[in-house]
Amino acid sequence: MKSTSGRSNHSGASRTHPVLAISMGDMNGIGPEVILKMLPGLWRSNAGRNSGILLFGAREVLLYYFRICYPDAPPPSWLNETSANTWHYEGSASFPSDDALPVPGSGQVVLVPSRQSEEPVAPGQTNACAGKLSMDAVSAGIDACLSGQADALVTAPISKEAIHLGGYRVPGHTEFLAERTGADSVGMMLVNDAMRIGLVTIHVPLRDAPGKITSGLIVERLNLYSRALMNDFGISRPRIAVLGLNPHAGDGGVLGGEEQDVIEPALQMVRKDGMDVTGPWPADGFFGSGGHKDADLVLAMYHDQGLIPLKLAGFGGGVNVTAGLPMIRTSPDHGTAFPLAGKNLADSGSMLAATQLALEMIERRSLTRSEHL
After folding, report:
1. CA 283, CA 300: separation in Å to the nearest integer?
2. Bridge partners (DSSP) listed for residue 189
């Protein structure tokens, strides 16, 4: 993709093509690498060729990984320091404090560079500098979406340990996005070619998950994911399968009462409103028998209950979607993969899938708005 220069403050209404904001992720993980590897694949697709990208990251970090990934190629123009824009910073902000970002044209990448990193790139290492820089990029990307300068945010992987060292007191992307956008309720939805998974509890310790699962929370999540399936995936009447919490879904109360006391009452409530839900299903037998193939989404009670089968069915091609935000956000379904960082071994398939799904969601929401005008 080409670069562009020039500065102006544009809203989405003044553009004729979608713009993606992309945050670099942890500079010591595989985020910068999968972004650089993803771009040629995105460019080859019609949707990618007709979209623009605002990339929030550190120029020296991206150059470092570009030379590893493409040792015999010259850096692209958007990464070349001679084409840099002039930016104004305030205080300790890593990224420009004003909102007059360049508008990437169709098929163009604009790098929104951070200040020079305080630490050198150290593949595989965890430090505060990398954590702060990664989340500052996310924050800048959110601002671009909320101001209308970007239509969706695609986030490369962060390290939860590093962001805590860097001063961010949030469990991860999902919670930070909810906080920054003022969303009342958000949920984590994981998508690949084999299935869609929605989570009731998200980033909480396993020992705490049962106490957080209430009938009210399950109803809230079911409504949230049902709307996302209709608005972002074009499914007019979603079929949702709900998993139990306990082995054998409690086995009639012998192995736990949450299914009878908490989950089933929630399902009865949403059925009264016409929602197509089944369950609660024993998780092991449900996936083993292929029950997910008959559902538009599977609602899992806790993180690993849903993500282990999803990643077994298609690791490296999944996408994380945050439902319930006033903006679109996707990300790859993997983490920073520190052991692979700096070795040119990372697979960009999930990052490419995340950008492509974001563009599909932009188009669906645009069509939905047009239908209601």
Report:
1. 8
2. 198, 321
Between vectors from CA 300 to CA 294 and to CA 305, what angle results, nearest 5°?
Answer: 110
* CA Rg value for the chain: 21
- What does pTM read for this prediction? 0.91
CA distance 240 to 92: 46
pLDDT band (50, 70, 90) for residue 84: low
Across 273-291, average pLDDT: 94
Inter-CA distances, 150 with 20, 53, 54, 144, 327, Å = 6, 8, 8, 5, 10
Task: Dump pLDDT digits (tens) for 244-281.
Answer: 999 998 888 888 899 999 999 999 999 999 999 999 99
In this structure, CATH architecture of domain 1-183? 3-Layer(aba) Sandwich (3.40)
For 313, list phi and psi in degrees, rounded to 5: -75, -20
Parse the chain into domains and list their residue ranges.
1-183, 184-324
Six-digit token pair at 326? Answer: 């006033």
H/E element holding 54?
strand 52-57
The CA distance from 262 to 276, in Å, is: 18
Torsion angle defined by CA atoms of residues 361, 242, 244 and 304, in that order, rounded to the nearest 10 degrees = -20
Which CATH code, of 3.40.50.2000, 3.40.50.300, 3.40.50.1390, 3.40.718.10, is assigned to 184-324? 3.40.718.10
Model confidence pLDDT, tens digit, residues 45-75:
888 889 999 999 999 999 999 999 999 999 9
Report which DSSP code applies to 291.
Answer: G
pLDDT of residue 13: 52
